UniProtKB/TrEMBL annotation:
GO terms for molecular function: ATP binding; protein histidine kinase activity. PANTHER family: NITRATE/NITRITE SENSOR PROTEIN NARX-RELATED, NITRATE_NITRITE SENSOR PROTEIN NARQ. It comes from Bacteroides uniformis. Residues 537-625 form the Histidine kinase/HSP90-like ATPase domain. The keyword Signal applies. This is histidine kinase. The lineage of its organism: Bacteria, Pseudomonadati, Bacteroidota, Bacteroidia, Bacteroidales.
Length: 629
């Protein structure tokens, strides 16, 4: 494809030579001369000399007003890609976009859009990648160039392959093969077979993969000065193939060959990066985790286009196998953070639209050619308008997307904080309940039984003096121990509703304390719809608060009520006529004492809200619960 624009500018080069002798060189002609020279030097691999030609071009007076300026910008950006300065290349390629409507050469449009797609892919911006591949394919279909169409189909297949949509990747590599067969460009044919081999091997279609590898290797061996780069590009597909065929000797041979070739190609080239990615995966599968990690860290520290989720997952796997669970967890967590289900859904939807557009454009191309002459002027105006609208829309969409992602991230952080606090409260309560069960068992099975034995021994002893009184005291002490044991043991919600349990508790509290305690249940025993865990927490809250009233409030009357506002919302109230609490306070913010702190934790554990109101007549504790939250 580059050969064509060299031929097109050869005439300008000859004209430049004539005008040099005349002593008068128009700016456009001079810039064309610099461009032609730089392009030839880039083809020959003389990048430093090519850069000097570009420097001379951009130093020319009034260069920005020449029609050659965007063409020079585009080619300069391509050179920056070749020498590994991808960030500068990325910025410069985007600077070419506003000039495209002024350029009639569709091949320049294809080149810019395709290169932008590649650069966005290296930055993991798949939405933008797909957008520019779409633009490139649109221009290529209009241009009617089979080499470009095959090349773009290859790039789309790589994008699908990287996000693990292998069926779509296979479909596009097959399309690329069909278009490549209609061209005589050896590089396009080689690239197509090489990519096809990798995808077929991943799909375990080993015969197709082996056939494609052989074709790519044969072309690479006659690469006309590019043998090393082309051969190393073949190796990822070959390594995958031999892994599937379980041929370790072949894997060793081609790994050694790749390591030798790696010394002779630029480390930032696509070929070198592809081989290092494949070598890391191969070493991981062969359990050479230390070697694999070396490659993974190399890929991570450079703009290689490696998909972060896959990279971090593989690194976590290696660290886990090497006995470093801390780093394994760190990288697995990083992989999780890169998972964006919404973004993946949007990308899949856009790719489906891309497929439809591709097939539609191919079918409509013949009709478009017949109408081209009479619609040419209208098409130019329409494309200019669309270009402006798309650029504006893209900027707006990008801004909105960033703001949306920021809001989502902030919301996730807040939810994680709430979840951590809730889990801490639940763990504290669970530990407390386990201790209660343990002490209840010890009291019931140990001390209570010992006291019973002591009581019986005293009662059967000789004499009816102080021994009888002592036996009575021991009996009372044993009953108190049994009561404490029963209060510590959790109630059986499998057999009783919360209404029944609270009713029994109120009666028992009245019997034990002499305070009048009454319970008003829900209508129609609605508390039976409460989950057991929630009912249990409500019971413990009532138990703790009523015991506090008994101990500290000097109350003579306590009223407990549970009301079902609807099937999801409940209100719990505890009213007493004890000492005034002096002021209204929020129960969940009161941290005085272990008991009230436990009440606060239980309230948080069931996502409820509570408050305490006091007046001269009584104190009212109110808890609001929504079991759907």
């Amino acid at each position: 494809m580059r050969v064509r624009h060299t031929k097109l500018l050869s005439l300008l080069f000859s004209l430049t030579t004539i005008l040099l002798h005349a002593g008068e060189i128009p700016t456009d002609t001079l810039l064309a001369h610099f461009y032609n020279r730089a392009a030839n030097l880039m083809e020959e691999g003389h990048y430093d000399e090519a850069q000097r030609s570009f420097d001379s071009a951009f130093a020319t007076r009034n260069v920005k007003y020449s029609f050659m300026y965007p063409i020079l910008l585009n080619e300069q950006a391509t050179l920056l890609v070749y020498v590994g300065k991808t960030e500068e290349a990325f910025a410069m390629k985007k600077n070419v976009l506003p000039y495209l409507p002024q350029i009639n050469d569709l091949e320049k449009h294809i080149s810019v859009y395709n290169d932008l797609g590649l650069l966005y892919r290296q930055h993991q911006m798949n939405d933008s990648t797909l957008y520019y591949y779409n633009k490139a394919l649109d221009s290529a279909l209009q241009y009617g160039d089979e080499s470009w169409i095959a090349h773009i189909c290859n790039n789309v297949s790589i994008l699908y392959f990287n996000i693990r949509q292998l069926d779509e990747a296979e479909k596009y590599t097959d399309m690329a093969t069909e278009h490549a067969a209609r061209t005589e460009d050896p590089f396009v044919a080689f690239t197509t077979w090489q990519i096809r081999a990798t995808i077929k091997a991943e799909l375990n279609k080993l015969d197709d993969a082996e056939k494609s590898d052989r074709k790519a290797w044969n072309i690479a061996c006659h690469g006309e000065g590019n043998e090393d780069l082309w051969k190393i590009r073949c190796l990822p597909g070959m390594l995958r193939l031999f892994e599937r065929k379980e041929q370790p000797d072949s894997i060793d041979h081609y790994l050694k060959l790749g390591n030798k070739l790696l010394q002779r190609v630029p480390s930032n080239s696509i070929a070198a990066i592809g081989f290092i990615q494949s070598r890391a995966a191969t070493e991981t599968n062969r359990k050479n985790y230390a070697r694999a990690l070396k490659d993974f860290h190399w890929l991570r520290n450079r703009k290689t286009g490696t998909e972060p989720k896959t990279l971090f997952t593989q690194m976590a796997r290696c660290y886990d196998a090497l006995g470093n669970p801390k780093l394994a967890y760190t990288y697995m967590d990083s992989a999780r953070m890169w998972t964006d289900t919404l973004a993946q859904h949007n990308l899949t939807q856009q790719m489906a639209e891309f497929n439809v557009k591709y097939h539609t454009q191919e079918k409509e191309l013949e009709i478009a050619h017949l109408q081209q002459e009479q619609l040419e002027h209208q098409a130019f105006l329409l494309k200019a308008s669309i270009a402006v609208a798309l650029l504006s829309g893209l900027a707006l969409i990008t801004l909105l997307t960033l703001r949306h992602k920021k809001r989502i991230a902030e919301k996730k952080i807040e939810l994680l904080k709430q979840e951590n606090e809730l889990n801490s409260a639940r763990r504290y309560i669970e530990g407390l309940e386990e201790e209660c069960k343990y002490f209840a068992k010890e009291l019931h099975d140990g001390i209570a039984n010992d006291l019973l034995g002591l009581q019986m021994k005293i009662e059967t002893s000789a004499g009816k003096g102080n021994e009888q009184e002592l036996a009575s005291l021991v009996s009372k002490l044993r009953n108190n121990v049994r009561n404490i044991s029963h209060e510590l043991m959790p109630p059986e919600f499998e057999h009783l509703s919360l209404d029944q349990i609270l009713d029994r508790y109120a009666a028992k509290l009245t019997e034990n304390t002499g305070i009048e305690v009454s319970y008003h249940p829900t209508e129609n025993n609605a508390s039976r719809h409460l989950p057991n865990e929630t009912a249990y927490e409500l019971y413990r809250i009532v138990q703790e608060l009523t015991m506090n009233i008994v101990k500290h409030a000097s109350a003579s009357h306590i009223v407990i009520s549970l009301r079902a506002d609807n099937e999801n919302k409940y209100t719990l109230q505890i009213t007493d006529n004890g000492k005034n609490a002096n002021k209204q306070q929020t129960a969940t913010n009161n941290n005085d004492g272990i008991g009230l702190r436990t009440v606060n934790d239980r309230i948080r554990a069931i996502n409820a809200t509570a408050n305490v109101c006091s007046s001269t007549e009584n104190n009212v504790f109110t808890l609001l619960l929504n079991i759907n939250e």
